[in-house]
């Protein structure tokens, strides 16, 4: 099976590190155990050689002949003949007796004997192989008389064959334990990796379905961990995308209806005027309707173009010193006749004077027109739309309120989103408030909405004065903090 992705990275990284640590640990322990066993044997041999000082004392150290006699007696009575071999050297360096009773091989290497001869302590040790290939540890103790003359030496030799078997057995046990650990790690991590990879594959498959437009696809959350949080996030994303898709479709449907209505009126009256030969009254009435519907159609198209510019970040402002009071009054005047026709009351409390602002005259007028138009649309016959303007703290505050149907609490946080319409029964594209909010942000101002269902809605617009912009320009963060305090 081809191993790829996360599993491959785990094998190369985590498992590779674990394997390296285990191999290093086993090799180190094996080396330490071998040294421990070897050192134990060497210590035992050294302890035996240290006994010679007491065994021989003065007797056997006066002359080579006395040493030979004492050494033969020591070898014959040595209690550990089965575990180690003894060799006795005379003053000429010849082996005169061994504990095994056979003549020694003169060609065997004996570095410990030569080391003892040259050592001040008269002691030498060696670990190595004999000519037969057997591995041994040898310790030699040189004996000297009171005048310091060499009278002989005794060599202790112990085979390492059994010791190596013990070391091999222990090393094998360590290797087996290491293999069991690796097997356990593989099995446990297999289940662990499977618990990650399987959900990730499901998440990938579901995300692919969502990317292809299936916004009803959901991931089943199994565990309440990071994977579970990712599942929740993707499910929430699908909800948002589904809602956005629905808003987009509603927007297209709404815009189509908004465009079709004036086009139908224009076409209908054009056909009516064409059919009526010389009816001046019908002609004038038809031309009036055609002009109004054309203006309405032009307004819708312009709003769509503005929305497109907003989406691409291409809204540009022509900033100039503006009499905001005049622009607000002009917007109110535009809707005065419509309010009368619809039997609604449009009340405007015009202040004596307001400070000038720095802004785009057309864009600010567009904001006022949009908000007043919404207030009229959502207010029933006989309702009241109130408009006030004031100045405080370097900001112009314009409040446009109505006693219309209001906005339900669950819809209020979303009404400034693009495409969003809280009330689908009223005409409109659903982008007017989003556009107005963006325009106010570009003017370093803000647009806030307060509403209660079946009570009414109040839209508050804050615009910094020209003096405020020149003397103490605010950063975006400071502006948001001020807005929060004003809404607090």
Short recap of the structure:
Helices cover 55% and strands 16% of the residues. It is α+β, with helices and mostly antiparallel strands and 488 residues long.
What is Rg?
51 Å
Measured by DSSP, the beta-strand proportion falls in: 15-25%
How are the strands of the biggest sheet laid out side by side?
2-1-5-4-3
CATH fold annotation of the largest domain: Heat Shock Protein 90
Order of helices and strands: HHHEEHEEEHHHEHEEHEEHEEHH
| Estimated helix fraction | 55-70%
Summed up, the domain count is 3
- Average pLDDT, rounded to a whole number, is 82
Membrane topology: Multi-pass membrane protein
Domain Histidine kinase: 254-467
GO molecular function, one term: phosphorelay sensor kinase activity
Subcellular location: Cell membrane
Describe this structure in words.
This protein has twelve helices and twelve strands. The protein has three domains: 5-165, PAS domain (Beta-Lactamase, 2-Layer Sandwich), CATH 3.30.450; 226-311, Helix Hairpins, CATH 1.10.287.130; 315-487, Heat Shock Protein 90 (2-Layer Sandwich). It is α+β, with helices and mostly antiparallel strands and 488 residues long. Helix 7 (280-312) packs across helix 10 (432-442) and helix 8 (324-341) runs parallel beside helix 9 (361-377). The protein has helices at residues 5-50, 52-56, 64-76, 111-118, 161-211, 226-275, 280-312, 324-341, 361-377, 432-442, 466-471, 476-487; strands at 85-89, 95-98, 123-129, 135-144, 150-159, 320-322, 345-349, 357-359, 384-392, 395-402, 446-452, 456-464.
């Amino acid at each position: 099976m081809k191993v790829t992705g996360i599993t491959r990275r785990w094998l190369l990284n985590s498992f590779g590190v674990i394997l390296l640590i285990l191999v290093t640990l086993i090799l180190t322990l094996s080396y330490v155990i071998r040294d421990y066993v070897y050192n134990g044997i060497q210590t035992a041999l050294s302890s035996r050689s240290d006994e010679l000082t007491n065994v021989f004392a003065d007797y056997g150290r006066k002359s080579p002949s006395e040493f030979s006699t004492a050494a033969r007696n020591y070898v014959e009575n040595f209690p550990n003949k089965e575990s180690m071999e003894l060799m006795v050297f005379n003053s000429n360096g010849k082996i005169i007796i061994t504990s095994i009773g056979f003549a020694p091989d003169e060609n065997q290497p004996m570095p410990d004997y030569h080391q003892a001869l040259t050592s001040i302590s008269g002691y030498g040790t060696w670990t190595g192989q004999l000519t037969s290939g057997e591995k041994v540890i040898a310790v030699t103790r040189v004996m000297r008389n009171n005048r310091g003359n060499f009278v002989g030496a005794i060599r202790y030799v112990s085979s390492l064959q059994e010791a190596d078997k013990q070391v091999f057995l222990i090393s094998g046990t360590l290797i087996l334990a290491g293999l069991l650990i690796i097997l356990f790690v593989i099995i446990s991590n297999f289940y662990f990796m499977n618990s990650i990879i399987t959900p990730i594959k499901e998440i990938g498959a579901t995300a692919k379905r969502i990317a292809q437009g299936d916004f009803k696809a959901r991931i089943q959350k199994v565990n309440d961990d990071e994977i579970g949080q990712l599942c929740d996030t993707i499910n929430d994303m699908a909800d948002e995308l589904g809602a956005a898709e629905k808003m987009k479709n509603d927007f297209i449907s709404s815009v189509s209806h908004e465009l079709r209505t004036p086009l139908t009126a224009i076409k209908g009256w054009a056909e009516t005027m064409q059919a009526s030969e010389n009816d001046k009254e019908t002609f004038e009435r038809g031309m009036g309707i055609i002009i109004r519907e054309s203006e309405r159609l032009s307004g819708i198209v312009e709003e769509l173009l503005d929305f497109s510019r907003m989406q691409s970040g291409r809204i540009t402002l022509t900033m100039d010193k503006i009499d905001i009071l005049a622009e607000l009054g002009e917007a109110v005047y535009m809707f005065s006749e419509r309010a009368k026709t619809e039997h609604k009351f449009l009340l405007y409390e015009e202040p004596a004077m307001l400070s000038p602002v720095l802004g785009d005259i057309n864009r600010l007028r567009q904001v006022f027109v949009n908000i007043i138009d919404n207030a009229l649309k959502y207010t029933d016959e006989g309702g009241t739309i109130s408009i006030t303007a004031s100045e405080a703290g370097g900001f112009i505050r314009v409040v446009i309120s109505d006693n219309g149907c209001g906005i339900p609490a669950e819809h209020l946080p979303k009404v400034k989103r693009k495409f969003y319409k809280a009330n689908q029964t009223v005409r409109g594209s659903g982008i007017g408030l989003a556009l107005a909010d963006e325009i106010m942000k570009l003017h370093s101002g803000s647009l806030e909405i307060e509403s209660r269902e079946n009570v009414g809605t109040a839209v508050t617009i804050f615009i910094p004065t020209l003096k405020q912009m020149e003397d103490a320009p605010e950063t975006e963060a400071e502006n948001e903090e001020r807005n929060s305090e004003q809404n607090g």
